[in-house]
């Protein structure tokens, strides 16, 4: 009678193994949650910087190679910025600008195509961004 009573219960080893499996599962779920949170924070930061980088995409930007400029330096001719707070915010957004040599499709051996010039703007800060400006002329 005593022997059949113990067969219906879990052994200590079974309880310990189930606790280890449950603990491991909880740790893995928390690790995945933490990684997902870090990924979301990275994406939010990256998008914020990309939006700020778009302030530097202007024709005027091609004059600055290996120079650090503020968004205000680039935008002041295009927009009338009278609000002091807005001006201060734009002055604090700074990026280093690199302008590589422009690509010319005629020099690249594309004789049958319209003449096109491809200019690149590299904007560097915490995250790098690359923008292209295309000038296409008819044959």
What would the keywords be for this entry?
single chain; 139 residues; alpha+beta; 5-stranded antiparallel sheet; 4 helices
Q: Layout of helices and strands, plus pairs?
A:
Blueprint: H1 2-7, H2 12-53, E1 67-70, H3 71-75, H4 84-92, E2 94-98, E3 103-104, E4 116-124, E5 129-136
Describe this structure in words.
By secondary structure, this protein is an alpha+beta fold. It has one domain. 45% of the residues lie in helices and 20% in strands. It has 4 helices and 5 strands; from the N terminus they run ααβααββββ. Strands 1, 2, 3, 4 and 5 form a 5-stranded antiparallel beta sheet that branches. β4 and β5 form a beta hairpin.
User: How many structural domains?
Assistant: 1
The span between the termini is 101 Å
**Could you report the average pLDDT, rounded to the nearest whole number?**
85
Largest β-sheet summary: 5 strands, antiparallel
Q: In angstroms, what is the radius of gyration?
A: 30 Å
Q: What is the share of helical residues?
A: 40-55%
* Binned strand content: 15-25%
Low-confidence stretches: none
The number of helical runs is 4
The tally of beta strands, per DSSP, is: 5
- Envelope shape: elongated
* Element-by-element helix/strand order: HHEHHEEEE
Structural class: alpha+beta
């Amino acid at each position: 009678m005593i022997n059949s009573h113990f067969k219906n219960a879990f052994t200590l080893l079974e309880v310990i193994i189930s606790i280890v499996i449950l603990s491991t599962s909880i740790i893995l779920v928390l690790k995945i949650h933490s990684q997902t949170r870090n990924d979301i924070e990275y994406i939010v930061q990256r998008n914020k910087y990309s939006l700020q980088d778009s302030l530097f995409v202007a024709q005027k930007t091609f004059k600055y190679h290996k120079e650090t400029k503020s968004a205000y330096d680039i935008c002041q001719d295009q927009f009338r910025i009278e609000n002091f707070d807005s001006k201060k915010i734009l002055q604090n957004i700074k990026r280093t600008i690199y302008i590589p040599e422009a690509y010319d499709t005629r020099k690249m051996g594309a004789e049958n195509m319209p003449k096109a010039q491809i200019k690149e703007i590299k904007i560097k800060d915490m995250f790098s961004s690359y923008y292209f400006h295309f000038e296409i002329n008819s044959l």
